[in-house]
Amino acid sequence: MEIASTPIQGCFVVQPQLFRDDRGLFFESYHAKRFQQATGIQVDFVQDNISVSKKGVLRGLHYQKGAAAQAKLVNVLKGEVLDVVVDLRKDSASFGRYFGIRLSETNRKSLFVPKDMAHGFLALSEEVIFSYKCDAFYDATSEGGIIYNDPTINIDWDYPEEDLIISEKDLKLPTFKEVFDDISFGNGL
Ligand SMILES: Cc1cn([C@H]2C[C@H](O)[C@@H](COP(=O)(O)OP(=O)(O)O[C@H]3O[C@H](C)C(=O)[C@H](O)[C@H]3O)O2)c(=O)[nH]c1=O
């Protein structure tokens, strides 16, 4: 397993060792001890999620607030995505900045997303099976989000706007400024 840091503190790219032979492929998709040795992070995942998306689906940008905040280890079982993380930690040097990376069944990379990040992805292949571990349970009452095309964060999704498939719920998400400037949103997280 190789771990690479990103411009967002605490967010790491995980490249597992791939064992290919004439049968196919094997790799350890997660190893708690090796991950902790490489990152210094001790994380206890409690929930695994899988979502299936067709090309052009954009899920996000989502996060859970407060005690329900989730760290995630995300990866792609099938297809390819542009995965995006936004730093929502006011005390962070990368507050309001995003990091994007292509995760795919080809590169087999995972991304460790620390708590208090907004997260989303764009499905780039005909079918995407997205799999991720969370260190806190789903809590609908703690869900928050930021609109995918927020002008402050200014994510380059590099995809035709007219071909995006976004849920009605996600199309109504607030902007970054509304989340952090408008106390009606509980002053952010
Ligand atoms: C996230 C979640 C959802 N649900 C239910 C709630 C809805 O009835 C249905 C679909 O949920 P949603 O539209 O929020 O699914 P996504 O848009 O894929 O949400 C995810 O999108 C981005 C990529 C994330 O990082 C989050 O993990 C998560 O918010 O599954 C559950 O029962 N448990 C869960 O943990």
Describe the structure.
InterPro entries: RmlC-like (IPR000888), RmlC-like_jellyroll (IPR014710), RmlC_Cupin_sf (IPR011051). With 189 residues, the protein is mainly beta. The protein has one domain: Sandwich (Jelly Rolls). 10% of the residues lie in helices and 39% in strands. It contains three helices and 13 strands. It has helices spanning 32-39, 168-171, 176-181, and strands at residues 2-5, 12-15, 19-21, 24-26, 47-54, 58-64, 72-78, 80-87, 98-104, 110-113, 117-123, 127-134, 143-145. The longest helix is centred in the first third of the chain and has 8 residues, at 32-39. The chain is globular, with a radius of gyration of 16 Å. The structure holds dTDP-4-keto-6-deoxyglucose.
What keyword list fits this structure?
binds dTDP-4-keto-6-deoxyglucose; 189 residues; six-stranded antiparallel β-sheet; disordered C terminus; 13 strands; 3 helices; five-stranded antiparallel β-sheet; mainly beta; Jelly Rolls; single chain
